[in-house]
Design a protein that fits this description.
Blueprint: H1 15-21, E1 34-38, H2 44-52, E2 57-61, H3 65-77, E3 83-86, H4 90-97, E4 103-109, H5 127-136, E5 137-147, H6 150-157, E6 165-171, H7 182-189, E7 195-201
Parallel strand pairs: 1-2, 1-4, 2-3, 4-5
Antiparallel strand pairs: 5-7, 6-7
The structure holds S-adenosylmethionine.
Length: about 230
C-alpha cells in the first residue's frame, strides 16, 4: 500500500473544511449550478468539462489520494476556478452534506467494473444509487454514466424503471461534446465500445425520502484507491 500524501492544493477541500463551510455551494466564489463527477481518477475529464462549461461549478470526487493530487494539478495548470476536489466516498458525501435537489448533473465514467460475479454487488451504479441520484438532482438535472464493461451496462439497463428518474437511453457512443476520460480513451483506442447511459430527473410531484446509508455501511476498498491508476 502506498502512503497517503497530504494534499495541499487550495482546490482540495478536506472534509473538515466542507463541514465548516456550512453548504457545499459556499466553496465557490460564484453561485452557479453545481455538478459532480464521481470517481474523477486523474482529473482529465473534469478539467476538460469545467473548461468548456465556465457557467457551472463542479466537484471532482474520488477516494483515490494520488488521483485527487493529479486532478488538483491538472486544474491548476488549466487555471480553472470553478472546480473543487474532494477525497470522499460519493454516497457518504452526498447523504451527509447535500440538500435535496442540489446537484445539476452527475458524471460517472468507467467506474470500477468489479468483473467477478461475486463482486458485482460492489458496483456503484445500482438501484440504490439511482435513488440517491434522483434525490439529489435538481428537477431537469441529468446523470451520465458510461462503462466499457458490457455486463455492467446490461445490469444497469435491466434495473427497474424508477419514477422521477427518466432513463433516456443507452448508446454505443458518447455525445460529440462529451470529453473523454483516461479510461474511456484507453478503451476507445483499443476499438472497444463505450456504453453510455443518460438519465433525467423529472418532476413527478412525489416527495422522496432522504436516502440513508445502511447502518454500518462500509464502502468497498478498490484496487485503485491507494495504488496508481494514473
Ligand atoms: C476505474 S477508475 C476510472 C477513473 C476515471 N473516471 C476515468 O474514467 O478515467 C474508477 C475511479 O473511481 C473511484 N471510486 C470508486 N468508487 C468510488 C466511490 N464510491 N466514491 C468515490 N470514488 C470512487 C476510484 O478510486 C477510481 O479512481
Amino acid at each position: 500500500m502506498q502512503r497517503v500524501i497530504p494534499i495541499t492544493s487550495p482546490l482540495f477541500v478536506p472534509e473538515t473544511s466542507l463541514k465548516a463551510c456550512g453548504a457545499p455551494e459556499m466553496l465557490f466564489a460564484h453561485q452557479q449550478p453545481l455538478a459532480m463527477e464521481i470517481g474523477c481518477g486523474i482529473g482529465d475529464f473534469i478539467t476538460a468539462l469545467a473548461a468548456q462549461t465556465p457557467q457551472w461549478n463542479f466537484l471532482a470526487v474520488d477516494i483515490y489520494n494520488q488521483g485527487c493530487i493529479k486532478t488538483c494539478r491538472r486544474l491548476t495548470e488549466a487555471a480553472l476556478e470553478n472546480v473543487r476536489v474532494l477525497r470522499m466516498e460519493a454516497r457518504a458525501l452526498l447523504t451527509s452534506y447535500f440538500d435535496e435537489a442540489s446537484i445539476a448533473a452527475f458524471y460517472i465514467n468507467c467506474p470500477d467494473p468489479w468483473p467477478k460475479k461475486r463482486h458485482h454487488y460492489r458496483r456503484l451504479v445500482n438501484a440504490e444509487f439511482l435513488r440517491i441520484a434522483r434525490y439529489f438532482l435538481v428537477h431537469g438535472g441529468e446523470m451520465f454514466f458510461c462503462t466499457d464493461f458490457e455486463s455492467y451496462a446490461d445490469e444497469v439497463e435491466q434495473l427497474p424503471q424508477m419514477p422521477g428518474l427518466e432513463f433516456l437511453g443507452r448508446t454505443a457512443a458518447t455525445p460529440a461534446e462529451y470529453p473523454h476520460s483516461k479510461y474511456m480513451r484507453r478503451f476507445l483506442e483499443k476499438g472497444l465500445p463505450i456504453h453510455f447511459f443518460h438519465y433525467r430527473k423529472s418532476d413527478d410531484g412525489a416527495r422522496y425520502e432522504r436516502p440513508q446509508l445502511a447502518p454500518g455501511f462500509r464502502r468497498p476498498r478498490t484496487r485503485t484507491e491507494e495504488t496508481s491508476c494514473g
